[in-house]
Structures are given as C-alpha cells and as structure tokens.
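Memo to structure team: turn this sequence into structure tokens by end of day. - J.P.
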Amino acid sequence: MKRFALALALAALAGTAAAADKAYQVTGPVLDVTPDTIVVQKGSEKWAIARTADTKTSAEPKKGDKVTVMYKMTATSIEVKKK
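Reply from structure team:
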C-alpha cells in the first residue's frame, strides 16, 4: 500500500513538472521591442511577452519583423479571496 501511495505521489509530481515545462508560441509581426519585452501582433490581439538576458534569439528582432516567440507560463503568486 505504501508503494502504491508513493507511486501516485511521484506521478503527481511528474505531471506537475511537465505542465510547468509546457511551451507555447505566438507568431506575427513585431510591434515593439525593448530589452525587457517584445510585443507581437496576433490577429487583432497584441501579445506583450517578457524578455530576459537568458532569452535566446537567432538575431535581434526589429519592429516589423515576423517572429515566432516560444514562451512558458508560470504563476508568480496566487491570492485567494474569501467569499
């Protein structure tokens, strides 16, 4: 029984880690670019995505360039409001 519970716990942890590593992408023209952000047009939406010194680029993007941005989403904080 303990092995089964341990296996379930490890599977849950592995699933959580896999979800945190899930990558997403957005493709479109660059509307704006700074050292900290890149803004990409996707249809009628503007996507502002954070950049860091660790962000890899094949070349420095410029306004008007068509780009594909790979990104990950991770919660930085969660505030629960009591009913």
